[in-house]
Amino acid sequence: MPQSAGIKSTTIFQFHNGQRKERTDTVACEEPLEIKLAFGKEVQREHRSLAITMRTPGQDEALAIGFLFTEGIIGQASEVIGVRHVGQALSPESEKNILLVELSPDTLVDFEQLSRHFYTSSSCGVCGKASIEMLRAVNLYYPRHGFPTYSPKQIQQFPWQMMDHQPIFEQTGGIHAAAAFDEQGQLLCLQEDVGRHNAMDKLIGQTMRTGDFPMRNQAVMVSGRLSFELVQKAAMAGVPLLAAVGAPSSLAVELAESHGMTLIGFLRGRRFNVYTGVERVVV
Which of 117, 118, 158, 269 is most buried, by the most CB atoms less than 10 A from its CB? Predict the structure, then answer.
């Protein structure tokens, strides 16, 4: 099987029944990506570092655009006028690990407010209600009430469709995925990354780039569990139905309910649990 991008080979020692065997294995790549912004009027352009995230290389432009959207910095893809790697050519890795995003001159960026936001969102003990109120202050693409609808059979097919489009997971078993489905339950787009938040940002960013945005007519499924942050990102993009193979947190359920989203957990085989928005699942 040819090796996919985002994968590295490594030598391991495998033990079975007390016997040791040396062999080659594959692991998912994890490298830092620094996102820099160029913003301001043409005669007063500023260049500043915004964030560093650990990600699987590939679809970096989509990741950056999705990240900027879910952090409330941009509201649409047209506010980004250019994206390019600007790393120093010290090594093939470092050359691709710094990304400069050029924003339109009319896009306002308040770095003082962004710094406070990043600190709050990464700290522990933030009140759930306060977090939800913060989200309501951000421009959102709310999903349509009760639409679209899906049958249980369509929803049960989400994981199987994803399995056929996860080359890195197939070779490593160590990566997350986020996928979008149309109103007929057919796979539209899938993104992989070692970070489940990055996979969601890549999916949102790629959808913004292709123009099928907001995502009011699309269901999304993610690997792993459903955290508050994943529901928050989906809510901002207008996603009406969010599913996962794992469990949701209490705050994820509360946030999904407050924004009229359908939240599905433990989607495995022929079973799944609907925590909010059951009206979109039509028997």
Answer: 158
Which position among 29, 124, 127, 189 bears the catalytic label?
124
Which residue from 213, 212, 217, 222 is spatially nearest to 190, judged by alpha carbons?
222
124 noted as active-site residue: yes
Enclosing H/E stretch for 235? helix 228-236
Nearest-angstrom CA–CA distance, 197 and 204: 11
Q: What is the pLDDT along the chain (283 residues), one digit of tens a residue?
A: 345 678 899 998 999 999 999 999 999 999 999 999 999 998 889 999 999 999 999 999 999 999 999 988 999 999 999 999 987 655 555 678 999 999 999 998 887 766 555 544 444 444 445 555 555 555 568 788 889 999 999 999 999 999 988 888 888 888 999 999 999 999 999 999 999 999 999 999 999 999 889 999 999 999 999 999 999 999 999 999 999 999 999 999 999 999 999 999 999 999 999 999 999 999 9
Domains, the chain, with CATH or none: 135-280 (3.40.140.10)
